[in-house]
Amino acid sequence: MKIEVTHKDEMRFEAKTAKSSFIIDCPVISPIEYFLSGLITCSASDMIVIPKNQNKNVTCLSVSGEVVRNEDHPKKFNTLHLEYTFNSDADDTMAARWVMASVETYCSTINTIRDTTSITYSITHNGSKIRENEAMISGGGADIDMGEIESCPS
Q1: Tally of CB atoms within 10 A around 8
Q2: So what's the pLDDT on residue 154?
Q3: 141 falls in which pLDDT band (50, 70, 90)?
């Protein structure tokens, strides 16, 4: 995958992919908001494709995400909570498995940050809360201490 970003004017940029292009207007939507939107959309698209592959249907899908970030630079994500709300023609167990398959395996953006961000999720399926503040099985925002690197003073 390759994306090229070019400056247009003021704080507006154009992002070009192999398939399309779009304008990033930083005063309107910040790059971190685009990132979070992409992360949520990645999982939301899984929530349509995975059930479809099982001859099931999801309707009224809404996925929201809330992050807590460092106060100081770098202002990385410390925690991410995803809230899935949808209806389907599946039972609650299958619906929960779709969410778990997305967050644990298929959503590459979530899996890109899972080792540095503590990720939880809640699920409302067919009007009933079936999971509340469940933690991802893998990942979990571990702090990694690389220790001192011999060739680089710390």
Answers
A1: 12
A2: 36
A3: low
Per-residue pLDDT tens for 55-97? 999 999 999 999 999 999 999 999 999 999 999 999 999 999 9
Residues near 140 by beta carbon (within 8 Å), at least 6 away in sequence: 114, 115, 118, 119
CA distance 154 to 147: 9
| Contacts of 124-131 spanning 24+ positions with Cβ under 8 A | 124/83, 124/84, 124/85, 124/86, 125/86, 125/87, 125/88, 125/92, 125/95, 125/96, 126/87, 126/88, 126/92, 126/95, 127/87, 128/92, 130/92, 130/95, 130/96, 131/96, 131/99
For the chain, domains (ranges, CATH) are 30-135 (3.30.300.20)
Q: Which tokens is 103 given?
A: 């967050």
